[in-house]
Amino acid sequence: MNRADFIEGLRGGFAVALASAPFGALFGALAVENGMSLSEAAFMSATVYAGASQMVGIELFGHHVQAWLIVLSILAVNFRHVLYSAALARYIGHFTPVQKFFTFFLLVDPQFAAAVKRGEAGRPLTFAWYFGFAIIIYIPWILTSIAGGLLGGFIGDPKAIGLDILLPAYFLGIVLGFRKRDNFLPVALVSAVASVFAYRYVGSPWHVSLGAAAGIVLAALLPLPPQEPDLEADALQSEVHEV
Amino acid sequence: MEFDLHMALVIIAAAVATFATRIGGYILITRMKSIPPRMEAALNAVPAAVLTTLVAPAFFIGGWESKLALVVALFVGLRISHTWMLVAAWIVVMIWRHAGGL
């Protein structure tokens, strides 16, 4: 493992760990509120490791929904990861099978965003960097889940301390990070409109898959850019990314 | 510390389902030899498309304080930095809810 890359990864992931700490704590608190034990909440954070879908999971646990439906809903929320791993494939061909296992197990949204940014900028996407970036998010995620579960009784109403706005604001920030891409505006607009309609008429969590599918299909149908994207030009264009 | 077997099995199933989505795209794409340009355009659109779907419903379903907070966060993100977006959104919501907003 390349030590410098690992440390650079740790540095990059640290900001994400800080940003996701309230969500880990929120998950732990809500999980306990919905009838999970502390060890079950920690186990879920350690094995599923996908914030939004964990929230959906505990919401459904609380409503005594059938097990297969809970798993299906989590699958729907996480379906975007199929597209992430497909998009990541071109950068991680050189990883060993064991490295690939950890790469995919730890593939959360900000991890994907950072990895693709790095790959597109033409910088080497080493496993050392990837793992450093991931582990500094993964371990605090479990720890903050436990802390949140312990504190759960004291939080009361998450809205009273403004926790509910952090998740959408955080995702909005990641979306903005991609605004220099081809067709960004039409894709984002179509996904936004489609997800709102799906939320209204199909229901959560399908708005994620359906809304995203609309934007992705649009991107595939729009006229292609005049030539292959030039990695060097991309690297010059891309700003310093801080998510 | 209680650990319910049924709950544990559901969590494990959820973990397996999640891992399947995280490796699925890679397996699909490596089975195909090259990526057609339209598929590449589609893949490039994935992150913005997916993440937008996590924001837009929150904007439309949230109260006026959430809408205002996200608009403020958008401007902060475009003008200042992404980190300050979270702070700005949180401040707007807290002021609205605790300083006698509607």
Distinctive features:
heterodimer, A: 243 residues, mainly alpha, 12 helices, B: 102 residues, 2 domains, 4 helices, 83% helix
Word description of this protein:
The complex is a heterodimer of chains A (243) and B (102). Chain A is mostly helical and 243 residues long. Chain A has one domain (3-179). Helices cover 72% and strands 0% of the residues of chain A. Chain A has twelve helices and no strands. Chain A has helices at 3-33, 38-47, 51-62, 67-77, 80-88, 97-105, 109-120, 127-155, 166-176, 184-201, 206-221, 231-237. In chain A, helix 1 (3-33) packs parallel to helix 8 (127-155). Chain A is globular and about 55 Å long. The two termini of chain A are 24 Å apart. Mean pLDDT of chain A is 84; it is low at 229-243. With 102 residues, chain B is mainly alpha-helical. Chain B folds into two domains: 1-33; 46-102, no CATH class. In chain B, 83% of the residues lie in helices and 0% in strands. Chain B has helices spanning 5-31, 37-61, 64-79, 82-98. In chain B, helix 3 runs antiparallel to helix 4 (82-98). Classes of the chains: A mainly alpha (243), B mainly alpha (102). At the A-B interface, helix 2, helix 3, helix 4, helix 5 and helix 6 of A face helix 1, helix 2, helix 3 and helix 4 of B.
